[in-house]
Amino acid sequence: MVDKFFKSEAASGVLLLGVTVLALLVANSPFSGVYFDGLHSYVAGLSLHHWINDGLMALFFLLVGLEIRHELVEGQLSTWAGRALPGLAAVGGMVAPAVIYAALNWNGALHGWAIPTATDIAFSLGVLAMLGSRAPASLKIFLTALAIIDDLLAVLIIALFYGSGLSPLFLGLAAGTLAVLYAMNRLGVRQLWPYLMVGAALWFFVLKSGIHATIAGVLLAFVIPNGPGDNWPARKLEDGLANPVAYGIVPVFAFANAGVALGGISFATFLQPITLGVAAGLFFGKQIGILGACWLGVKLGIAKLPVRANWVQVYGVSLLCGIGFTISLFIGALAFTSPDNVAAAKLGVLAGSLIAGVGGWLVLHQAGAKGVKT
After folding, report:
1. Cβ neighbours of residue 71 under 8 Å, at least 6 residues apart?
2. Which DSSP symbol is given to 47?
């Protein structure tokens, strides 16, 4: 499962890089007006940008939920020993970036504190994949598990801190719909299509409830029947969504969200509190939080380093986790309503992710080149 997941996410990361460059080129070309106006054109009551971020990304989070559930039940996170190191690393990698961002934005845009807490699975695994045999398999498993737990924490953050104008009526309807889905599971409904039909209603009610609509995808993932073997609805759906999400939905999201107009940008632009807070949180916060949490866990005897890996390589992975991209851009769009603040956050995500990705690759590449024991 991890090997299949790793290859899919790594290939998706290469595609994401190309789409990101394309979005930046289009946003700074004569077609920029078409690009930005198109994203803000309305279809069936929602802008195209909202359909992408609230609709298509619900399928992304549905896949994330299915992967989290699988790993918790029968994958790398199914035992406490397997959860200890990546779990500690994920928590450390969430807290330290948030603290750094908050320290730089204490009297300003504090609502963006969660932007640098995320790790992009596709990009980080894509960079690690380029190292080939220089990175031991255990390091790839560690990064995959860490990123999955990171996704779980990101889902909780979005649900708890980025809702607005809660509607008791639609919250009740969403809860009732979730209860119906749970009852279907308990009553032995094993066809997939009834869950998808009722799940669409769940998405609509969550959208109207004030909780972000993508949470519906995660909730649905945990009530679709699952078990050992490949014939369960959850496993079939996970396999069916993997390629469309990796090669369709996430690149579309990246194209719609990574475009930033760079005209007039100077060095001083990157010293704005939001931009600096996001970039510093991703680059410094992730490595401090992850490496520090791993060291503490090993020191206390509650976790062990990945097999055949060492502290230099764990440090390299902590740098790679500073590639925030997809979820960081997503949270940035939720955190701010001001276009200037959103653009500043995007710049911070792009700058921090680029520096972290290059730094992580260099550390891991040099560790292999110098024959560091693996």
Report:
1. 1, 77, 78, 145, 148
2. E
Q: What is the per-residue pLDDT across 117-130, written as a single tens digit (0 to 9) for each? A: 999 887 888 888 77
**Helical pair 80-104 and 137-161, crossing angle rounded to 10 deg:** 50
pLDDT for 128 = 83
By the 8 A CB rule, do 220 and 65 touch? yes
Same domain (yes/no): 106, 129: yes
pTM (two decimals)? 0.81
Give the residue among 253, 329, 248, 257 at the shortest CA–CA distance from 27.
257
**Amino acid at the residue 210:** G
Tokens of 275: 């931009």
Distance, in Å, from the CA atom of 131 to the CA atom of 182, rounded to the nearest integer, reads: 43
Say whether both 275 and 131 belong to one domain: yes
Tokens of 18: 């190309």
Q: Give residues with Cβ within 8 angstroms of 18, minimum separation 6.
A: none
Distances from the Cα of 124 to the Cαs of 28, 72, 221, in angstroms? 26, 21, 24
- The kind and range of the H/E element at 2 are helix 2-27
**In contact, 252 and 214? CB cutoff 8 Å:** no
**Three-class SS of residue 261?**
coil
Mark whether 110 and 144 lie in a shared domain: yes
Same domain? 134 vs 46? yes
Place of tokens 């600096």: 276
- Report the distance separating Cα 198 and Cα 45, nearest Å: 21
Q: Is the domain of 205 the same as that of 225?
A: no
Do 295 and 258 reside in the same domain of the chain?
yes
